[in-house]
Model the fold of this input.
Amino acid sequence: MPQANKTLKVTQIKSTIGFAADQGKTVRALGLGRIGASVEHVDNPAVRGMIFKVKHLVKVEEI
Done:
C-alpha cells in the first residue's frame, strides 16, 4: 500500500505521435508534453492508473 508521503517522478521518454489519442491526453493530464519533461506526483491509485496506461511512453522513479 502506498505511503502518504511517497512521491513519483514521471519523465516522458517517447513521443505520443502514432499512439491512441486517449494516451496522448493521459500524458498531457500527467503534466507532460515533450520528450525529457519531468513532473512529480503524489503516489496514489489515480496517478498509478494513468501511469499504467502510458507506461510505454514514460519512465517512473520513486523519490
